[in-house]
Amino acid sequence: METQASFRTRLLEAGILFPTGVDGLWGRNGTFEQVFDGLERAITAAGADHGAEVMRFPPAMSQATFEKSGYMKNFPHFAGTIHCFTGDDRDHYKLMGQMERGENWMEKQEPSGLVLSPAACYSVYPIVARRGAQRGVLPAEGALVDVSSYCFRHEPSLEPTRLQLFRMREYVRIGTREQVMEFRQEWITRGEAFARSLGLPFEVDVANDPFFGRAGKLMADNQRSQNLKFELLVPINDGAGPTACLSFNYHMTYFGDTWEMKTPSGEAAQTACAAFGMERLVLALLRHHGFDLAAWPAGVRKTLAI
Ligand code: ATP
Ligand code: ZN
């Protein structure tokens, strides 16, 4: 049986991944990106009949949005903040000396007001919440957004599937409980059909987020017992459990309460998202169909239009 390290080694030897010297931070070659682009097209096709509104975001969000989203309460260990130099000429001279001597040169690096995005859907809620004649009141049909962004999570790992910076594409539903539950059920079914069309072995299972600290254990147990999160898992790394490539999350009124989004009848809006881990899906395809795209099953190539 191939080992986990050997899949990574093979990716490196084939020149598909470029090492950067940091665990969980890779460059990627044309083959990888060709599959990535195919996946983007296939995800668009899988949701085309829904007519979702497209939003694309840079890898960062405002500190204010980040703070209000509550991320630090649950996942302080994953967050990445952006700091920039704010000193004068003297500080700059000092900094250059510190750098040359291999000393800490961070003292004049101040918070920039930007935080790296931890999940693509976080950027969507404040935008939808500002809309409408009556701010925050959704139209009867609710909202459906097709969003993507680079995301950062400080979880360095040698597994090629666990990255610190990765691309997340999501369909996000905002509306009544019925609308949101129907969306999530529908996307679990669509996600399974999607994985099948890619020729990937998979299972769907209930899951939990890696909440921080002692209180986190309780949060995770609650999330599981209430079936708030499902994952579509694909075996990728040998010697390890299968990897979550898609997540189907139900947030109840968490973001509706946070951003004061309401349904037309005045209740707090509910939200759910179907999130695709793009690099993980590329790696799953490379793992199961090999590194020679021309030799992939015809049906898979057709789905990806490659
Ligand atoms: P995991 O349980 O593997 O840590 P997660 O449950 O925290 O993942 P989500 O927060 O639901 O993941 O993120 C949505 C999707 O983004 C996941 O289904 C996965 O495909 C992808 N993803 C999450 N974390 C990473 C990572 N560190 N590297 C690459 N992809 C990731
Ligand atoms: Zn989401």
Task: Give the helices and strands, then pairings.
Elements: H1 4-13, E1 17-19, E2 26-28, H2 30-47, E3 53-56, E4 60-62, H3 63-69, H4 71-74, E5 81-85, H5 89-100, E6 109-116, H6 124-129, E7 143-152, E8 165-175, H7 177-197, E9 203-206, H8 213-225, E10 229-234, E11 243-252, H9 254-259, E12 270-277, H10 278-289, H11 298-304
Parallel strand pairs: 3-7
Antiparallel strand pairs: 1-2, 4-6, 5-6, 7-8, 8-12, 9-10, 10-11, 11-12
Helix pairs in contact: 2-10
This protein binds adenosine-5'-triphosphate and zinc ion.
Adenosine-5'-triphosphate binds near residues 155, 163, 207, 275 and 280.
What does this molecule look like?
With 306 residues, the protein is an alpha+beta fold. The chain has two domains: 4-79 and 118-304, Bira Bifunctional Protein, Domain 2 (BirA Bifunctional Protein, domain 2, 2-Layer Sandwich), CATH 3.30.930; 85-114, no CATH class. Helices cover 38% and strands 25% of the residues. Helix 2 (30-47) crosses helix 10 (278-289). The mean pLDDT is 96. Bound molecules: adenosine-5'-triphosphate and zinc ion (ZN). Adenosine-5'-triphosphate binds next to strand 8, strand 11, strand 12 and helix 10.
Brief characterization of the structure:
This protein is α+β, with helices and mostly antiparallel strands and 306 residues long. It has helices at 4-13, 30-47, 63-69, 71-74, 89-100, 124-129, 177-197, 213-225, 254-259, 278-289, 298-304, and strands spanning 17-19, 26-28, 53-56, 60-62, 81-85, 109-116, 143-152, 165-175, 203-206, 229-234, 243-252, 270-277. The chain has a seven-stranded mixed β-sheet with strand order 3-7-8-12-11-10-9. Strands 4-6-5 form a three-stranded antiparallel β-sheet.
